[in-house]
Write a structure and sequence with these properties.
By secondary structure, the protein is α/β, with parallel strands linked by helices. About 40% of the residues lie in helices and about 20% in strands. The protein binds flavin-adenine dinucleotide.
Length: about 525
Amino acid sequence: MIEKDKIVVGGGIAGLTAALSLAQRGKDVLLVEKNEKPGGLMNSFERDDFRFEGGARALVNAGLVKPLIKEFSLDIKVLPNPITLGIEDRLLEIDGEQSLYRYSDMLKDLYPESEDEVDKIIRAIRAIIEDMTVLYGVENPLFAKQKQNVLSMILSSVIRMLKFLRTMYRIGRMNAPFEDYLDALATNQSLKDIIGQHFFRRTPAFFALSYFALYNDYIYPEGGVGAFIEELGKAVGARGGEIRCNTEIVSVDGHNKLLRDAKGNEYRYDEMIWTADLKALYAMASDKGMAKRSLERFRTRKRAVLAHKGAESVFSVFLASDLPPEFFREKTSGHVFYTPDRRGLGTVHTSELHALLERWDTLQKEDLHDWLDKFCKYNTFEISIPVLRDPGAAPPGKTGLIISTLFDYTLISRIRARGWYEEFTNRVEDSFIATVSSSIYPDLKDSVLFRFSASPWSIRERVGSSEGSIVGWSFEGEIPAVTSMFNMGNSVKTPLPGVYAAGKWVYSPAGGPTGIMTGRIAAKQCK
Ligand SMILES: Cc1cc2nc3c(=O)[nH]c(=O)nc-3n(C[C@H](O)[C@H](O)[C@H](O)COP(=O)(O)OP(=O)(O)OC[C@H]3O[C@@H](n4cnc5c(N)ncnc54)[C@H](O)[C@@H]3O)c2cc1C
């Protein structure tokens, strides 16, 4: 039996932040992680000297990452991560907020019949950018310096709070799904698709439209996202915390505060922070011996959590090219959101996909392939080229790329059940590469040295995330998590005694920044 005062389950960004915060306070903390190294959905890996990000392609600073690096003296150099937005042959490098007006010109050029609608959308984005400056532009007080003049601390807190309250009021008014919000501003479906099709279905309008501000807020750690994670792990160790990898928790006895791992080892904790999959926690936690009131709360919460599903996942194609970085640099930066066709997806990823799933049992492979062709032709791709941000990411004169787009978990799991997985993933790799090869990076396909892919299925297998989700809950239906920033402090509470939760399942909308915030909050709530 291993006895630890605090145990953190899951070594993603939320778990590492929680463990680091606890270790910093001198707590006896053990972090257990099922994979061979921490990072979860933030990691880098190498294949034949090409470095790729397996999860998030860069970090969103969000007033959190740089302060975290400073507070814990992490040995990380932060590199710029400029974003290029592209539609067909129009490419725009985002360079500060003024780029919004160049984006507006680009859209008007593509959709001359909808100039007024473009203006309305741009005005809405502009208002949101002002709000984002308040939310993310100021260094978050969770990472404020410990020693500060009390008066200036109170004053800056009051100012921050007033701005924050005004912003929260405006956000509250924009909580409707972005599709509905855009419907009220524009009728041109292609224009609306181009603005919104790389967001998760029914994303709150504020969050989706705020992305233009976040494009200016991305940073890239030298050595890759994985290097940042590695530094976080080292910082936990340097403060006396312990990280155990290859340790998968398979049962939780909430009453006796006991965990068991897949190898049969037992762990006793006083307080535990769960940052792995939330459905897994409620499915494996035993309610034996729980007091009546806690039991009722536990069962109600369990029903809500198990009934909902994760948001759409991602399909990523990784490839190595023997074209030099200069070939790509002439066209774009190292982080691109690109749509090859102004027409947009229309109903391909909504009603056409539903129709496909509804007639699944009688579906012919050719019908699936026809759908895939349209899906690739009209979609928006996130393209990451690590070597354009960090010259050490590829062998001299060569370039690695990651091309990805949102992808439905149900579809890929059915494809797998039908025995079509290998053939289908191969076809997706071909299609993604052919799409960018015939548009943004001509002839890329003739230079490919090797390629492979990761599907929503492989994401679920690797990090154990329900439905392969990368950002927690789907926005469709009732979300079983805190959705108001006012209530973020409560997001980490669970009905299990001494158990907190953090990460992408406890607060929505989620991502890297909320992982850091909830990890920090959960650690603060521990004794
Ligand atoms: C392709 C891609 C692009 C992304 N882009 C962005 C972006 O631009 N901006 C943004 O904010 N976010 C982005 N994200 C999302 C972001 O990376 C995640 O939301 C965030 O990293 C989640 O962190 P987490 O700690 O909550 O969960 P995870 O990273 O999933 O960590 C959970 C950890 O728990 C471990 N685990 C699971 N089960 C067990 C068990 N039973 N026992 C022990 N350990 C267990 C897992 O292995 C994992 O390490 C992206 C993700 C991907 C994949």
